[in-house]
Amino acid sequence: MSKCDIDINFDRPDRTYLGGETVSGEVFVRVNQDINCNGIILSHYWGTHGRGNVTTGTKHTIQLCESQPLQAGEELRLPFEFVSELWPLTYRGNFINLDHYVHVGVDVPWAIDPKHAEEFIVIAGQRPPQFTGCRSDLIDLKKQNAKDSKSGGIGLVLKLGLGVLMLSLLAALGMLAIFLVPIAICFGLIYWFRKKAISGRVGNVDFTTPVIVVSPGEDWPCVLEFTPRKTFRINEISAQLLVQEIATSGSGTNKTTCRTALFDEKQIVLPAGQLTAGELVSEHLQIPLPDSDAWSLDVSDNKIKWTIDVRIDIPRFPDWSQKTTLQMIPASFLQGSATNTAPSDSSGPISFDKASNTFADHATIEETAPATVFELVSAINNADRYGNERTQVISAAGGQTFGIAVIVDRTSTTLEFAESVRPEHQQGRTILGKLAGTDQDVQLFTRQHNNAAIDAIARDEVWESQATVAKWDSLYNRLVMLEV
Amino acid sequence: MPHSPLPSKRQPSSGEQVQHPRLPYAHLNLRRNPFGALTIDDWVILADVDIEDAVAALSQSRTAIQYVGEKGYGKTTHLLAINSQFPNAGYVHIPEGQRSKVPAGSPILIDEAQRLTVWQRWRLFHSSIPLVLGTHRDFRTELVRAGRQVTTIEVAHQTDAVRLHRLLNARIATVRRGPGTLPSVSPATTNALLNRLGPNVRAIIHALYSEFQTLSEPTEI
To answer: Who among B6, B20, B27 is closest to A413 (CB)?
Structure first.
């Protein structure tokens, strides 16, 4: 039997807090054996779990109880309160998860300390100070993370050690230079010739964008301009948006890096054809970014990366390509929040100087309102995945109420600040499942008065309702609907 | 679009509770995927290895125990488990392509011992401090020549279906969230994994991680 049993209870049953909010609750300790206790310490911190090596943030500690003897049978109720961290936010992925923890330990000398930890959920709230509103440069969170992790004296020793190692390596390299230099020159020449060959065809390619800090659901503007120096054929010009989880476990030869694509979509900017020497190619793009809570993350061995790879695919010739890393952050961090007095320097849609040419212009959708949800699902399946056709189908169905039956997969409490949630749904539930009679996934936000009935629903049961369409979630390929 | 008949909606009975999957892996009654990366502390706690004989032998000076095997077969697990039994032990894992200093302590545990320099190996083998090696290469001849009492353990032979089954379910149990049913790995699945992947515990763990990501309720797999 453990010397103590520890429970941690939060003031909120759903344990969900905005960044910067006060997290409070009570720690309950039941003493099972007489012990000399050197104190009861609460610590709160964030930590990753999943396929990547565990990384934790700074552990902030609070002493709940001073040193004292504890008797068997004694019960302690210790209230706690602290301000939740602003970043990173709770994340649930495939290879990577990030959670915030309250950890309580009873310091028992000369014995294993009884301890217990519970998770709580942190969602976007107060804007972290490193998000100044500037959107043209990646926000360097590593300095913040380095400050958070244990450093100080250990970091200095590590840096000195690395410096000595580098000097030793340089000395060794100096002796090997006679062999390495020709190899390095060869590789350099190959790289230079390749670059010259490409620019000899496409010329100088200008790829510009006003922002690289973005939020979900935005249309990311960019301009691709070049004047070919020669007439040549292309297979296509494309822009591929890739969102990846990258998790590394182990170290040295045991290191394994796993990648999984959360989103991978290529959009054709220009199809196969011929480019004429001297004729300007100018493409103004609005690349739609999916709704997502996969915020850009780079904590040691756990990364979530958003990249856009623009490519000029030239047959039987090296391609021109440029990869841009985006930083995906919550929209509230760009627009400011109720508790944040510093407005960002952007508001509303991302503006761009030149007129844009959206992908929607390449196709038109007959905007007739579907009569039933089955017609709506059929229209979505028939719409082109690329561009905004599906969004236009949803727009055509806007305001219309559909009778639906959802085969329930799971239910949860609606996050107050979930995308698309209206005030009347904020105290309700979220049902994830499939529309009965189809393979279409759906996310349904319900009203509060149905909470009891929904809480009693089991998986694979049916929830019947009337609902309107809020939007199309292109990340999860599902309809988002609001109960009326 | 074909319409399938709607399943009848069951009237919910009173008292049923649905655990909302807000907390990680709550739908499996777990706190995390049990087959994700471990901290060193968790690694030691979960080590299911026979080290009693090795621990007893290490009380003698000039003892050398070497665990030989491929990557992922359990060499480091054995060394970490032994290390936890000796407060004064010195342990080092030598990264690839790098030199590491031989730690002080007794016993001395060297993980990836094949990466020791010739000089380090000579000094270490000829010392009288008890030694534990994790290695891809068998150093028996050199150790015996240095006057050591040598025990060589092929780690691949340490992993059998019974031990593996116990280890996998122990990993699940350590991340239990609350009372109630847990998912589990059946003996049949354990055997199938051993047949498919051999005694490569790391590969088996990775395969089960993906399996658990798709589980929707606590069942036996």
So the answer is: B20
Is the domain of B84 the same as that of B172? Answer: no
Q: Alpha carbon B147 to chain centroid distance? A: 32
Give mean pLDDT, residues A309-329: 92
Q: Note whether A281 and A227 are within 8 A (CB).
A: yes
Whole-model pTM over 0.90:
no
Residue recorded with tokens 């996969």: A294
Q: Which of B22, B33, B100, B111 should be substituted to probe chain A, the one whose Cβ sees the most A Cβ atoms within 10 Å?
A: B22
End-to-end CA distance of chain B: 35
Give the C-alpha separation, A36 to A109, whole Å.
7
Q: Are residues B70 and B117 in the same domain?
A: yes
What letters, b where the CB count within 10 A reaches 16 and e where it falls short, cover B5-43?
A: eeeeeeebeeeeebebbbbbbbbbbbbbbbbbbbeeeee
| Cα atoms in the 13 Å half-sphere on the side-chain side of B105 | 19
Q: Is residue B189 part of a domain?
A: yes
CB contact (8 A) between residue B36 and residue A411: no
In degrees and rounded to multiples of 5, residue A253 shows phi and psi of: -70, -15
Shared domain check, B197 and B137: no
Tokens encoding A471: 């939007």
Q: List % helix, strand, coil for chain A (3-state, nearest 5).
A: 20, 40, 40
Q: Is A64 helix (H, G, I), strand (E, B) or coil?
A: strand
Domain that holds residue B186: 26-36+159-213
Question: Which of A248-252, A447-451, B161-165 is predicted with the least confidence, judged by mean pLDDT?
Answer: A248-252
Contact between B22 and A252 using a beta-carbon 8 Å cutoff: no
Cα dihedral sign, A273-A275-A280-A281: positive
Nearby residues of A332 by Cβ (< 8 Å), 6 or more positions away: A124, A125, A127, A417
B138 and B205 in a common domain? no
Which domains, from first to last, does chain A contain? 4-123 (2.60.40.640), 129-361 (2.60.40.640), 363-483 (2.40.50.140)
Report the C-alpha gap between A399 and B10 in whole angstroms: 31
Q: pLDDT confidence of A322, banded at 50, 70, 90? A: very high
Q: Which residues of B164-179 are buried (b: 16+ CB within 10 A; e: fewer)?
A: bbebbbebbeebebee
Which among B3, B127, B153 has a CA at the least distance from the CA of B66?
B153
